[in-house]
């Protein structure tokens, strides 16, 4: 990748610098690679509901293999909290529809 080529060129340019510079460079490189790895790997999450991409520090939970951000989980909780009411409403709705269909003779 382009990134790898860049860092190789940089290291050879800096190879005659003192030990301290080398140490700082390698420390910075380590940090950079760490950040890159974090960016590229499993610490990056993609919310399966709102399609938002979240990182390590954005709150969220995985349910099985899927990751969900806190905002979507809050919405889900709201739905779950009102699940009974919702089911009642749905049952009532289908009952009403049945009655309506009966009345219309369908
Ligand atoms: Zn989300």
What key attributes describe this structure?
64% helix, 106 residues, rod-shaped, two-stranded antiparallel sheet, binds zinc ion, 4 strands, mainly alpha, single chain
Describe, in plain words, how this protein is organized in 3D.
With 106 residues, the chain is mostly helical. The protein has a domain at 1-41. It contains four helices and four strands. A two-stranded antiparallel ribbon has the order 1-2. A hairpin with a 6-residue loop joins strand 1 and strand 2. The chain starts with a helix and ends with a helix. The model has no long low-confidence stretch (mean pLDDT 78). Bound molecules: zinc ion. Zinc ion is lined by residues 47, 49-50, 52, 68-69, 71-72.
Could you outline the blueprint of secondary structure elements for this entry?
Elements: H1 2-13, H2 19-40, E1 45-46, E2 53-54, E3 60-63, E4 66-69, H3 70-81, H4 83-104
Antiparallel strand pairs: 1-2, 3-4
Bound molecules: zinc ion.
Zinc ion (ZN) binds at residues 47, 49-50, 52, 68-69, 71-72.
Structure at a glance:
With 106 residues, the chain is mostly helical. The protein is 64% helix and 11% strand. It has helices spanning 2-13, 19-40, 70-81, 83-104, and strands at residues 45-46, 53-54, 60-63, 66-69.
